[in-house]
Write a structure and sequence with these properties.
With 135 residues, the chain is of the alpha/beta class. It has a single domain, classed as Cytidine Deaminase, domain 2 (3-Layer(aba) Sandwich), CATH 3.40.140.10. 24% of the residues lie in helices and 36% in strands. It contains 3 helices and 8 strands. It has an 8-stranded mixed sheet. A hairpin with a 6-residue loop joins β5 and β6.
Length: 135
């Protein structure tokens, strides 16, 4: 289970809407476990060659954000990105690019009349859906 604070949820949706038509991305901070708790959302620049259909966090920026999270006494819970036109689940590209075993991958999909925020844990071989709870 992934517990999102209301502020974190609102931030994810707002950034996804403002970032359209490109995918937005970033890192989730809080505490890992079951449930994992997301306390803060860190935006990262999408440096993918085609940001409309892919996302990529610059490795130097990713390292800097992760070090900041750890320096603040928190943990990296996972990563997020948006699907401006769907799907409401990880794509084949998302699976091919996933590398962090046991971490949450949150997707904000904007293809319907209301945003969809879902989360999946990467097992090293595939994504397993996890319940998202607002706190």
């Amino acid at each position: 289970m992934l517990a999102l604070s209301r502020e974190a949820y609102d931030t994810l949706v707002s950034r996804a809407r403002r970032g359209r038509p490109a995918e937005i991305c970033g890192i989730l901070a809080g505490t890992r476990g079951d449930p994992a708790n997301v306390e803060e959302v860190f935006h990262a620049e999408n440096v993918a060659a085609d940001a409309r259909t892919h996302y990529e966090i610059d490795p130097e920026e990713q390292l800097a954000v992760m070090e900041r999270i750890e320096a603040d006494g928190r943990e990296v819970v996972g990563f997020y990105h948006s699907h401006p036109l769907g799907p409401d689940e990880p794509s084949a590209t998302d699976a091919a690019d996933a590398t962090w075993d046991g971490y949450s991958y949150v997707i904000v999909s904007l293809n319907g009349s209301h945003p969809f925020v879902g989360s999946w844990r990467w097992t090293g071989e595939g994504f397993e859906p996890e319940v998202v709870r607002l706190t």
